[in-house]
# Entry
Amino acid sequence: MNMVKRWHAQGGYKEALNIGFPLVVSMISNTVMTFTDRIFLGNYSLEALAASLPANVMSFLFLSFFMGVSEYVNVFIAQYTGACRPADVGRALWQGIWFCVPSGLFLAALLFLAEPMFRLGGHPPAIQRLEVIYFQILTVGSLPCLLGLCLSNFFAGRGLTKPVMLISMGSIFINVPLDYCLINGIGPFPEMGIAGAGLATVIGFIVPVIVYGLLIFTKKNEAVYKVRTAWRFDRELFGRFLHFGLPGGVQFFLDMFAISFFVFIVGRFGPVELASTSAVFSIYNLAFLPTIGMHVAASIMVGLAMGDNNPNRAAFSTHSVLHLALAYMGVMAVVFWFMPEFLLNLFRPRDAAGADFDAVLIMGEVLMRYCSVFTLLDAVAIVYMGGLKGAGDTRFIMAVMGASSIVCIVIPLLVLNGLSVTSIHGPWIFLLVYVMILASTFTYRFTRGPWRRIDLIGRDKPERS
# Structure
């Protein structure tokens, strides 16, 4: 099919952009907040920049499992919408809420484990102290983070992604200036350093929850989707939600565990290696997180098609999303290869420590070239994973992510650590192999097509009144 026909076809480029572009903007909004947060911390001190990545990654590691599960509300809502069962949309949303509340409280309790956990990391004491502070604040904010993600699925799952985009963009105007003021002590705000960065992030989680609540639980939505009266716990639907959602949570956790392990091993190499990796990962998020928006778009479009019992349209939609993601990642690969110095210098401290940044810059330029190589591979892995998730093939994704993270990241880095090998190239080469295996495996699985036979919502079951 030529590009013009594919643009207008159902599941084509136009539909993919209508659904995916607002999600990309939403992810870019989140990226901007994370990116500016790291820039502000880098300008504040190198220790704060070095501590921000391990603490953020570790916080997100624990959060990732619960995010992966709660995000799966998205697929249920998409498939119920595609199956023309709107009354079940409210039920699916509420099962997600019932999952998020105890999960957020459990995560908040992890603040008591922060000190012994980061002591195991073996980083310098000054960095450890900042890691503990940042982690404790972020983990307390887990509940509003999970609820905001869950509530956003009410719109995204039905293909209405513009409200998600607008709310995410609005968060920038709250988070970024608040971040700067609380880190540096601007105006009436105290100088809190890395603690201010964490507090601004948590406030950025709370505001969207309030906005989503006001937009969702209205009389109009109640009449169609039963968003108020479907609040009761539904054992059958909750069980089905966990059956498909838990593997998604485990998969997300395993992926983040691999990255967390990667960061902590690199942190043992020295402060320059840790700071350069932190800066490069922050920059790479400019490519990675928007592609996650296309990943979610693939899940939504596949969910809508599978709810309508149309796997051919699901495959067509996934490939439309993939073409767009490859185009975007191709541009980012060129930017990373030819502009690493410009991007890395955004993190240069303003004080005398700026001279110490030269070593970080030299190493960071090398790492940016690694990122440039695996951006296209990452696009393939991320989009096909989204397509498989939208169809309910989450157990396969979980198995592949688990095996790949252990074989490609954990075991090799343990060997390098045991042999006292401190070359930065070793960990990054293994990370590249990890992405290559994910891309090739998910491509084979999606092309082979066993996901076409999965019945996620029980299409033969009648809609509840």
Notes: The two ends are 42 Å apart (CA to CA). Residues 7-452 form one domain. DSSP finds 18 helices and no strands in the chain. Confidence is low (pLDDT under 50) at residues 460-465.
